[in-house]
Structure formats: structure tokens, C-alpha cells
Design a protein that fits this description.
two-stranded antiparallel ribbon
């Protein structure tokens, strides 16, 4: 999702390339569409602390570092560091990772009654055993 663009948000779908170069279409749930559109509106406003207005960027999620990469797409390492910070701050006894969100997504789909083969396809798994 780090490659998500504002245009894809407006189109209400994106393509994600996963392991092995597999590309899948991803559609946004109505609640996600709404949040993403609100985010783009907020992003267009001046930053309260600095009153800086972000320049246009094709990417939805951009870096706010004041240095060399301001306005570029946000880095994977930044997301991992944010997840680590908040996960550790919650004192859950174990760290929550970005990849764990993928597992939670698959579990929720299964619990909602979705067919395991459909989940396999959504996750891009070649082998059903991986999904199971």
C-alpha cells in the first residue's frame, strides 16, 4: 500500500504486487474509501506545527521528514518503526507486525464465511496449504 496513489483512491481500487511478482486487484471497502478520501483532504491542509502546505505528490502516503525525502512516498522501514513503537507501547507481551495484519485479514475473511479458495486467491498463495 506504500505505492498507493491519490488516483487509485479516486478509482476505488489498486493493484498490489506481492511475493513472486504476483499482482492482485484490491478494492476498498466503503469505510476505507471514506477514510482515504478524508485523509487526502486533510493532507491538503497546512501542517499545524509548521504551517507548511505539502506539494502535490502522486503517492497517498508521503514522508514528512524535513530533509531530503519530504513529499516522497513513505518508506517501509518507517511503517515498521511506527508499528514497533506503538506495539511496544501497548505492552501486549508480544510485538505486532505489519505482516500480522495480513494474518488477521485472512482470519476475518474465514470467520465471515468466505471460501478458503477465495482467500487463497486474495492472498496470492500458490498452495492451499499456505493459506490453511
Amino acid at each position: 500500500m506504500l505505492n498507493l496513489t491519490a488516483e487509485e483512491i479516486r478509482q476505488k481500487e489498486t493493484k498490489v504486487t506481492g511475493k513472486g511478482g504476483k499482482t492482485r486487484r484490491v478494492f476498498f471497502a466503503p469505510s476505507s474509501e471514506e477514510l482515504l478520501e478524508e485523509y487526502l483532504e486533510e493532507r491538503a491542509k497546512p501542517i499545524p506545527r509548521t504551517q507548511r502546505v505539502e506539494g502535490y505528490s502522486d503517492y497517498a502516503f508521503i514522508s514528512h521528514n524535513s530533509g531530503y525525502d519530504y513529499g516522497d512516498k513513505i518508506h517501509k522501514e518507517t511503517i515498521c518503526a511506527i508499528m514497533k513503537k506503538y506495539s511496544d507501547g501497548m505492552n501486549l507481551g508480544k510485538r505486532i507486525t505489519v505482516h500480522m495484519l495480513r494474518h488477521s485479514y485472512a482470519t476475518k475473511l474465514l470467520e465471515s464465511g468466505m471460501n478458503i479458495r477465495e482467500i487463497q486467491e486474495l492472498l496470492g498463495h500458490s498452495d492451499l496449504k499456505t493459506t490453511q
